[in-house]
């Protein structure tokens, strides 16, 4: 799996890929808590071959999101993905990598 385009707007890439006849899924950050490296509304687009563009976590969970997106493309069922700590106790014990990110993955038709 690799980034296959120069750094561009992921939504523009998704449109281009759809016009090329590729199957495409989009992953969108819908909620964050704590130290999530990407804001709500950030996108990662994935084609049916596992090529991707954009970011939902600055590299922390992209591999897992791409894998889930391939399942979404195949099954046509959207998924909500949750990554991170379960609650605020991580901050009390000083985990610098604490935080949570929710990512919604859907197939573009």
TrEMBL record:
- Please name the PANTHER family in this protein's record: ALDEHYDE OXIDOREDUCTASE MOLYBDENUM COFACTOR ASSEMBLY PROTEIN, MOLYBDENUM COFACTOR INSERTION CHAPERONE PAOD
Q: What is this protein called?
A: XdhC family protein
Q: Which organism is it from?
A: Flavimaribacter sediminis
Q: Organism classification, top ranks?
A: Bacteria, Pseudomonadati, Pseudomonadota, Alphaproteobacteria, Hyphomicrobiales
Q: Please give one Pfam family short name.
A: XdhC_CoxI
Residue stretches making up the XdhC- CoxI domain: 17-84
Please give the start and end residues of each transmembrane region.
none
């Amino acid at each position: 799996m690799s980034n296959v385009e120069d750094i561009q707007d992921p939504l523009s890439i998704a449109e281009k890929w759809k016009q090329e006849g590729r199957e495409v899924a989009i992953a969108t950050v819908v909620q964050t808590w704590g130290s999530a490296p990407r804001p709500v509304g950030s996108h990662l687009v994935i084609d049916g071959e596992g090529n991707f563009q954009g970011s939902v976590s600055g590299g922390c969970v992209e591999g897992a999101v791409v894998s889930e997106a391939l399942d979404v493309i195949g099954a046509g069922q959207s998924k909500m993905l949750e990554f991170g700590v379960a609650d605020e106790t991580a901050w009390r014990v000083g985990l610098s990598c604490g935080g949570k990110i929710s990512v919604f993955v859907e197939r573009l038709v």
